[in-house]
Amino acid sequence: MADLLTPDYYEYEWVPLESVSLMPSGGALLIWPDGQSLECHPLWLRENSPGPEGIDPRSKENDLDVAKLDLDIRLGVAFVEDGALVVEFHPEGRRASFHPGWLRHVADGQHQPFALLPDPQIWKSQDLPEPPTHEGPLVLQDDAALAKWLNDLLEFGLARLVSLPTDAGVVELVGRRIGVLRDSNFGLTWHVSVDLDPNSTANTDVRLPAHSDLPSRETPPGFQLLHCQENTVAGGHSTMTDGLAVVQHLEQNEPEVLQSLLKSEWIFFNRDEEHDHRWTGPIIDRGDGRVPWTFRAFHPVRGFPAMPQEEIGDAYFAIQRFGHVANSDDFQIRYELHPGDLIAFDNRRVLHGRESFDSTEGTRQLRGTYMDSDEVYSRMRVLHHSVPGLQHSLAFSVARKDSNA
Ligand code: OGA
Ligand code: ZN
What we know:
Blueprint: E1 19-22, E2 28-31, E3 37-40, H1 42-47, E4 74-81, E5 84-90, E6 95-98, H2 100-107, E7 133-135, H3 136-141, H4 143-156, E8 158-162, H5 170-178, E9 189-192, E10 208-211, E11 223-231, E12 234-235, E13 238-242, H6 243-253, H7 255-263, E14 265-271, E15 276-282, E16 284-285, E17 294-295, E18 302-305, H8 309-326, E19 332-335, E20 342-346, E21 350-354, E22 357-358, E23 364-371, H9 373-386, H10 390-404
Parallel strand pairs: 7-8
Antiparallel strand pairs: 1-2, 2-3, 4-5, 5-6, 8-20, 9-23, 10-21, 11-20, 11-23, 12-22, 13-19, 13-21, 14-15, 14-18, 16-17
C-alpha cells in the first residue's frame, strides 16, 4: 500500500484515515483521527486515480482527456483499507486506492502555491540593519545551507552571501543552484560598472535611489542577484528598502498618496538601438491581491503619464512622497558590498539602490543576473521535501531570531 502512486515526485508519510463516508454529491468525506477532514469531489478523484486514463505512472500526470470524462461519475463504494482510501467509481466500475498522506497534504493546504514558502516579514531599518548573511561556499555545496539562505530571501526579500570567489562566472553558478536564469537585452548575466558609452543609468557613477529593475516589462524579473567582483572606489554604498513597509506607512499616514500610487498608470520604456521595451502600470501593482506585489519605480525608464491630465500633478506628488519615504533612514538600510559578496533580492518587493561614487579613483565592478520568482519558489519547495529536518531547523532559526530581538 505504501507505494501507492501519487501525481508527483514526493514521498508522503503514511497518515492513515479513520473513516470515509459517501456524500449526497457522489463524493466522499474523509476523516483523520485528529479531526482533520477533506471533502473529495468524485470527478477530481477520478482524474487523480492511478492507472490508465488517470495518473500515468511514467509522467505522474493525469492523461485523461477531460472531453472523455463522464460527468455523471459518482462513488459507488468508498472504504478505508490499511489507512488508505479505496473507492469504486459508478457506473464505470473502476476501483482506485489513494495514498492517505497525499490526501492529507491536500486537507492541510500543503498543495497551495505559497504553502511551503515563508510568510513575508515586513521590515524597517531598525528591524533589519544588515541583510541576513550566509556563507557563500557552503550554500554552493550544501542543500540545507541553500534552503536557509532562500528562506531568508523569501521572508525578508533579501539575503546576502559572503566569502565567494570574485571571478565573473560566480553569479551564474549561484543562480544555477536555484534554477534557470532569466535572459534580457542586457544578457544572461550583465556587468554593473562605469561605461564610457552606457545604455543604462546603472552603468554610470551616479546615485541610484530606491528602485526596481525592468519596470518596462509586462512581468519585471522576480529576483535579482548582484555579485561584487571588485570595489575600490570611495562611496557607492548599497541600499535596500522593503516596499511593503513603505506601503504600510503610507496606508497609515498618507492614504491619498497610496491611492494615487495604486491607481495612476505610467508608461515605462527601456530602449537602445536594438530594443524598444514598453509596459504600462501603476507604481504599485497589487496584481490580483496575492503576493507578490510589483513595485514599478525607476525614473530613468518612466516615460509618460498614462492617466487623465488632471491626475498628473497628484501622481508626481505621490511618487515624490513614495521616494521620500523609501529613501529615508527609517526605511532604507545602507551597507558596503565587498569583493566576494553577493546580494540576492526580490526585485518586485524590495527597492534597491546605491550611493554615487568617485570613479576617478578605483574600480567598482559588479555582475548581475535576473531570475523569475517561479524558480526561487520551486527550489524552496523541492528543498522542503529533500532536506531532512528542514522544517524543524527553520523553525529553530526563527525562534533564535525572536530571542535575539
Ligand atoms: C542596477 C543597480 C546597483 C549597484 O544595476 O540596476 O541597481 O550597486 N545597481 O550598482
Ligand atoms: Zn537596479
